[in-house]
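#lab-general

N.A. 3:47 PM
ok so I finally got the sequence cleaned up, no stray characters, all 307 residues accounted for. can someone with queue access submit it? mine expired

B.Y. 3:52 PM
send it over

N.A. 3:53 PM
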Amino acid sequence: MFNTAMYAINFGDFYYENLDCFANYSKIGLKEIVLIHVIDPSVFHHGLYSVYKKEDEDKIRKFAEIKLEDIKKYLEKSGFGVRYVIRVGNIADEIADEARAENIDFVVLDKKADAKKGYFSFYGSPLYDIIIKTEKPILIMKRVLFHSSSDFKNDAKTSCGVLFDDIVFATDFSDFSLKSIPLILKIPDDVVKLLTILHVIDEKLIRGLNNSTKAELENYEKNLADKFESVMRGLNYRFAKEKSNIAIVVKKGAPCKEIIDFIEETGNKLLILGFKGRDKEGIKEILFGSTAERIISALPCSIFIVK
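B.Y. 4:20 PM
back already:
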């Protein structure tokens, strides 16, 4: 069960819509919510001669306290225990530090509409930095619009009330991708209506298989079937064809493209991805090689990143 979540909030375009989602998270066991707002001193440096002023920070802090107190009362009406914290510093560092300090099960982020100026823009911090620095699982919410008056009329509407009903677990069967299994097991049995285990055979491997003998192909298919069976055992056979709550899908091609295309074609609500360790240069961390940034930037649905 997921008892406690931390929501990193910047009072942007979508935060209020996404607050409504928490009311639906009680079905996965959510009881406590920690709200965090980070004041980044760098936002005060608007020009070449801008000077950081403590009084500016104090004004923003007072504004944030008023907003957070209102949000706290709003969420408490749904029966949650709510507390909030305001930190000052680098956004990614402060969120990661608070996530370590708090006894939470996952962190919730949402992407701002303006990717160039966005609080959660993928490249160049802070979303990317938050992902690589935070040790807890991270739920990146697809934009949720409930109000017809919104300026963002073209964004797809997503009902977070059924977010965990229809899940895609994308795996390459590596150790890091299989880290997602314990998280899936935390979701109550009566919540997930359909779990799709999606595996993409990389186009590079396909070229190699084209030159394989019949026996080699049969051996590859058997190994693949064994890997799916291993995942099923890891999930304690909670999902099975006879229960009509599982689908096994194998695609061929570029993993990033195939995953995004599948989500868009089927309209699945939640994509679960395992998190890989640092690359050779130690500069950044990646999911499925170099494809994660494209998947998250495209945001075909809400994405749960597991570490």
